[in-house]
Amino acid sequence: MALVKYENIQLRIDMELKRDFETLCSNLGTTCSQAVTLLADSCGTKDELPFDIVYNMNWKKSEEAQQERIAIRIEGDKKKRFSQFCNARGLSMSAVVKMFMLQCLEQGKLPL
């Protein structure tokens, strides 16, 4: 049986976004890491985003916004497929994860 290699997706996000997303995930019976893993898996297997890209989303980008580093633990091959998916579209994994979090909060559910 082959051992599964895990890696981290690391990003910096607004503390309020992180807290709100963690609360939503908890209310939905999942964790932030599980939700992002579902996103990465969906992108890698379906070759499409499970939500529409919206560049004009209401998120704090000011210098005063408190940023926090988070690490999402994910299987190495899923991270690789997610990275390839994002790169092929000229997007960073960080930007896609942040857009995903915002879409989830806006809809009150995981759009998967």
Structure description:
By secondary structure, the chain is α+β, with helices and mostly antiparallel strands. Helix content is 50%, strand content 16%. It is built from four helices and two strands. It has a two-stranded antiparallel sheet with strand order 1-2. Helix 2 crosses helix 3. The relative contact order is 0.27. The mean pLDDT is 87.
Biggest sheet details? 2 strands, antiparallel
Mean pLDDT: 87
Write the H/E string, N to C: EHHEHH
Q: In percent, how much strand structure appears in the residues?
A: 15-25%
Residue stretches low in confidence (pLDDT < 50, at least 5 long) are none
Order of strands, widest sheet: 1-2
Relative helix content: 40-55%
Strand tally: 2
Number of helices: 4
Topology:
Layout: E1 6-14, H1 15-27, H2 32-46, E2 67-75, H3 76-88, H4 93-107
Antiparallel strand pairs: 1-2
Helix pairs in contact: 1-4, 2-3
Kindly list the characteristics that best describe this protein.
single chain; 112 residues; globular; 4 helices; alpha+beta; 2 strands
Produce a short descriptive summary.
The protein is an alpha+beta fold and 112 residues long. Helices cover 50% and strands 16% of the residues.
